[in-house]
């Protein structure tokens, strides 16, 4: 069935009114309150805060307008794509059945454990696995050239707003959807197999309790110009809004740093952690200089395909040349 106007409107409304969503209006309001506290802690008058936050230069900049357009277009696209994407329940069911085949006798784990322990273990495991998977695929998107072609749409934002988190190319959206399905499917299928019906998710207003706390603590400030730093020791454990703004910096020395979503431990393990500096980055974007038409939809949606095709064609050409050279040397030695 073709999605209609009401379907699109409902999808957009859910984005802002569902507490399990990152840009839920309640989280946006709390981020604004935290931003005001940071503003005043920097010695500035609270009277000037609303004007700074609601500045037309931010919310009606070419970059912000591109955010809004991408949000609407992607909502429409994924209404079409949703029936074709892998669901976590499908994967969980498959994994559950495979475990039955691989293990003759279904084990009963944690029979003497307190009733509350298994939901907490499941919720924590899901959070950790999901956060690590986000870090890993984010890292790949920066390190693999053809993936970077699509991910740079997100980094092309010159002005950061909370809606920049939804500024993604549809190809990246599909990859993150698959990541979510795999993480949830593996956790659900594995835990239900080993712990049976005792498995439950600790939720707060429909969100994993750890994700809820993350959003409650001002997660939306990450895509703003409010430079909220944590103490250096804490930034070695949790990614602060300032650290994520460093990740978006157009300065080459900041490239490929702070891939983590919530936890900083993954960046520490892989050597990509950078604690925030006293001053905020001066420029955001893929490059220091603005490129003509960089915020146009035809560029944001079309250019990544061309760039990815060039990368793949170059890779194929190098591989073909190498194989020919190896064969030629082999014949010469033969």
UniProtKB/TrEMBL annotation:
User: Where are the membrane-spanning stretches?
Assistant: 24-41, 76-96, 116-137, 176-195, 201-221
Mind telling me which InterPro entries this protein's record contains?
Fatty_acid_hydroxylase (IPR006694), Sterol_desaturase/TMEM195 (IPR051689)
What is a single cellular component term in the Gene Ontology annotation?
membrane
Q: Which domain of life is it from?
A: Bacteria
Please classify the protein's predominant subcellular localization into one broad category: membrane
Is Lipid metabolism given among the entry's keywords?
yes
Pfam families in the cross-refs: FA_hydroxylase (PF04116)
Q: Where in the cell is it found?
A: Endomembrane system
Q: What GO biological process terms are annotated to this protein in UniProt?
A: lipid biosynthetic process; membrane lipid metabolic process
Example GO molecular function: iron ion binding
What positions does the domain Fatty acid hydroxylase occupy? 124-272
Task: Print the keywords alphabetically.
Answer: Lipid metabolism, Membrane, Oxidoreductase, Transmembrane, Transmembrane helix
User: How does the protein's chain sit in the membrane according to the entry?
Assistant: Multi-pass membrane protein
- What protein name does the entry list? Sterol desaturase
Q: Which organism is it from?
A: Saccharospirillum salsuginis
């Amino acid at each position: 069935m073709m999605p209609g106007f009401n379907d699109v409107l409902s999808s957009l409304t859910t984005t802002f009114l569902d507490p399990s969503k990152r840009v839920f209006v309640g989280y946006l309001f709390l981020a604004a309150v935290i931003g005001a506290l940071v503003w005043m802690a920097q010695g500035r008058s609270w009277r000037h805060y609303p004007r700074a936050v609601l500045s037309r230069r931010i919310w009606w900049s070419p970059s912000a307008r591109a955010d809004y357009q991408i949000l609407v277009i992607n909502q429409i696209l994924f209404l079409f794509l949703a029936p074709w994407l892998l669901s976590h329940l499908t994967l969980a069911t498959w994994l559950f059945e495979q475990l039955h085949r691989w293990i003759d006798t279904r084990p009963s784990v944690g029979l003497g454990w307190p009733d509350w322990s298994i939901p907490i273990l499941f919720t924590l495991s899901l959070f950790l696995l999901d956060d690590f998977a986000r870090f890993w695929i984010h890292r790949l998107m920066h390190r693999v050239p053809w993936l970077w072609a699509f991910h740079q749409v997100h980094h092309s934002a010159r002005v950061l707003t909370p809606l920049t988190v939804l500024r993604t190319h549809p190809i990246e959206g599909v990859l993150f959807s698959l990541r979510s399905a795999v993480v949830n499917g593996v956790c659900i299928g594995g835990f239900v197999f080993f712990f049976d019906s005792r498995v439950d998710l600790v939720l707060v207003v429909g969100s994993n309790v750890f994700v809820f706390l993350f959003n409650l603590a001002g997660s939306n400030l990450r895509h703003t110009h409010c430079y909220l730093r944590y103490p250096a020791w804490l930034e070695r454990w949790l990614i602060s809004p300032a650290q994520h703004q460093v990740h978006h910096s157009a300065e080459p020395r900041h490239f490929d740093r702070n891939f983590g979503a919530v936890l900083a431990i993954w960046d520490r393990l892989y050597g990509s952690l950078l604690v925030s500096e006293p001053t905020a980055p001066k420029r955001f974007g893929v490059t220091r200089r603005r490129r003509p038409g960089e915020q146009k939809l035809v560029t944001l949606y079309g250019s990544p395909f061309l760039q990815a095709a060039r990368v793949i064609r170059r890779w194929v050409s190098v591989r073909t040349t190498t194989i020919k050279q190896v064969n030629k040397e082999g014949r010469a030695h033969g």
